[in-house]
C-alpha cells in the first residue's frame, strides 16, 4: 500500500508539472492573439493574475491570518520587485522578437540559477554543469546571430533580463523559505500592474469583452494556474525531474505560434535553440539519474 500511494503521488506530480509546462508555453500564443500595446497588455494581465491569486489566498484561508511582516516582509518585497521586472520583460520580449528566440534564452535559466546560487549561497558548481552551461551559451550566441533588426536585439536583451530575474527569484525563494510564495507572487503582479499603469500618460485603455476574456485566460494560464500546478506537483518529484519536464515549454512555445500564426523562426534561431535545449535537458537528465541511482544505493 505505501508503494502504491507513493506511485500515485508521483504520477499526480508528473501530471501537474506537465500541465504547468503546457500552460506556460502558451504565453507567445496569447501575446500574438491580443492586439494591445505592451504596457496595457502587461497591466491587465497582472491585474487579473493578482485578483486570481488573492481569491486563492482567500479560499485557502490565508488572508484571515495574513501578516505582511511575517508572510512577505522586506525579503518578500525584494523578491516581488525582481519578479515584477521579469514579468514585464517576458511579455515585452515576446512582443519584439520571435517566441523561439525568447525560449532559447529562457532555457538557460537553470544555469543562471546555478550561478546566482554560487554567488549568493556559495553553492558548488560541478565541472559537468560548467560544460553544459558553456554549450547552452553557444546556442544562445548562434540564435542571437540571427537577429535581423533592433527589435530582435532588444527582444533578446529583455529575454536575458527576464531569465536572470526569474532565476534570481528561484534562488531567493530557496534562501528565504519562510516567504509565502503565493502572496509574494500576488504582490509582484500588483507592482508590475501599477508600474505599467503609471507609464501610460493617457491612462489604461479599457479592452473590449473579447480581449478581456483573452487577458483573463492569459493571466490564469501563464501566471496563476501554471504556478500553482508546478508548485504543487514539484513537491512529489525530484527537483531535477521537475525541471526537466518544465523544459517542455521551450519546445511547445514556438510550436503554438507556428501552428496558429505561421511564425517560423530563422534557421540560426532553430539551430541555437536546438543546441541550448540539448545542453540543458542533457544536464538535467544527468542530474536526475545521478540522484536516482544514489538514492537506490542508499
From TrEMBL:
What's the source species for this entry? Erwinia billingiae (strain Eb661)
The way it spans or sits in the membrane comes to:
Multi-pass membrane protein
Give start and end of each EamA domain.
12-143, 155-281
Q: What transmembrane ranges does the database entry give?
A: 12-31, 43-62, 74-93, 99-120, 129-148, 154-174, 181-200, 212-230, 242-261, 273-290
Q: What name does the UniProt record give this protein?
A: Putative permease
Its family remark reads: Belongs to the EamA transporter family.
Q: Key word Transferase present in the record?
A: no
Q: Where in the cell is it found?
A: Cell membrane
Amino acid at each position: 500500500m505505501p508503494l502504491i500511494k507513493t506511485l500515485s503521488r508521483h504520477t499526480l506530480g508528473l501530471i501537474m508539472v506537465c500541465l504547468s509546462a503546457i500552460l506556460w508555453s502558451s504565453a507567445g500564443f496569447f501575446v500574438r492573439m491580443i492586439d494591445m500595446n505592451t504596457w496595457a497588455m502587461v497591466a491587465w494581465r497582472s491585474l487579473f493574475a493578482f485578483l486570481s491569486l488573492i481569491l486563492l489566498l482567500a479560499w485557502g484561508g490565508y488572508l484571515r491570518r495574513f501578516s505582511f511582516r511575517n508572510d512577505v516582509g522586506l525579503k518578500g518585497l525584494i523578491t516581488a520587485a525582481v519578479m515584477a521586472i521579469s514579468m514585464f520583460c517576458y511579455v515585452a520580449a515576446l512582443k519584439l522578437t520571435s517566441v523561439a528566440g525568447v525560449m532559447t534564452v529562457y532555457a538557460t535559466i537553470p544555469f543562471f540559477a546555478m550561478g546566482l546560487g554560487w554567488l549568493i549561497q556559495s553553492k558548488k558548481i560541478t565541472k559537468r554543469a560548467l560544460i553544459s552551461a558553456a554549450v547552452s551559451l553557444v546556442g544562445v550566441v548562434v540564435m542571437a546571430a540571427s537577429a535581423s533588426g533592433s527589435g530582435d536585439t532588444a527582444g533578446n536583451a529583455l529575454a536575458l533580463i527576464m531569465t536572470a530575474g526569474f532565476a534570481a527569484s528561484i534562488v531567493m525563494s530557496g534562501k528565504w523559505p519562510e516567504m509565502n510564495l503565493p502572496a509574494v507572487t500576488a504582490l509582484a503582479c500588483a507592482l508590475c500592474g501599477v508600474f505599467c499603469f503609471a507609464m501610460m500618460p493617457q491612462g489604461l485603455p479599457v479592452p473590449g469583452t473579447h480581449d478581456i476574456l483573452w487577458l483573463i485566460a492569459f493571466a490564469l494560464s501563464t501566471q496563476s494556474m501554471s504556478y500553482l500546478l508546478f508548485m504543487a506537483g514539484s513537491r512529489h518529484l525530484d527537483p531535477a525531474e521537475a525541471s526537466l519536464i518544465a523544459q517542455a515549454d521551450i519546445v511547445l512555445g514556438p510550436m503554438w505560434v507556428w501552428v496558429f500564426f505561421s511564425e517560423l523562426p530563422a534557421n540560426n534561431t532553430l539551430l541555437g535553440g536546438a543546441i541550448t535545449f540539448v545542453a540543458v535537458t542533457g544536464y538535467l537528465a544527468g542530474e536526475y539519474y545521478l540522484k536516482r541511482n544514489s538514492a537506490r544505493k542508499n
